[in-house]
Amino acid sequence: MGDVGGQKTLRTYWKNYFEKTDTLIWVVDATDRERLDDCRQELKGLLVQERLMGASLLVFKNKSDVSGCMTEDDIREGLQLDSILTHKWHILPCSAMTGSNLQEGLQWVVQDAKDRLFLY
Predict the structure, then answer these.
(1) pLDDT digit string (tens) for 2-22?
(2) Model's pTM, two decimal places?
(3) What SS3 class is residue 55?
(4) Catalytic residues
(5) Coil, helix or strand for 83?
(6) Are 31 and 65 in contact (CB under 8 A)?
(7) Domain boundaries, position 81
(8) Which CATH number covers residue 61?
């Protein structure tokens, strides 16, 4: 597991970390509506990477505890998750500040890996 950061200057290096990736955990700031289009474009570009074929996608909707944040439906629509047919995906609200749902998200990752263990 590694955090490769989301700054634009680091994005060109992301592909160097994809070898043997089982799950991509994508963290979305649920308070930043203006960057959702950029977030969708970056995610779309990643999911076509050959090294990520077969990987599942966990989307953490971070800052879910902040009043007025985007809903899960807002994130689903903004990222166009329903159009992703090449990867199993799951969206989960969370808060990095309180730790809410972080454990549940990692449990989903582990269970997903177990479910796929004997499929190959």
Answers:
(1) 444 554 554 454 555 566 678
(2) 0.84
(3) coil
(4) 7
(5) helix
(6) no
(7) 20-115
(8) 3.40.50.300
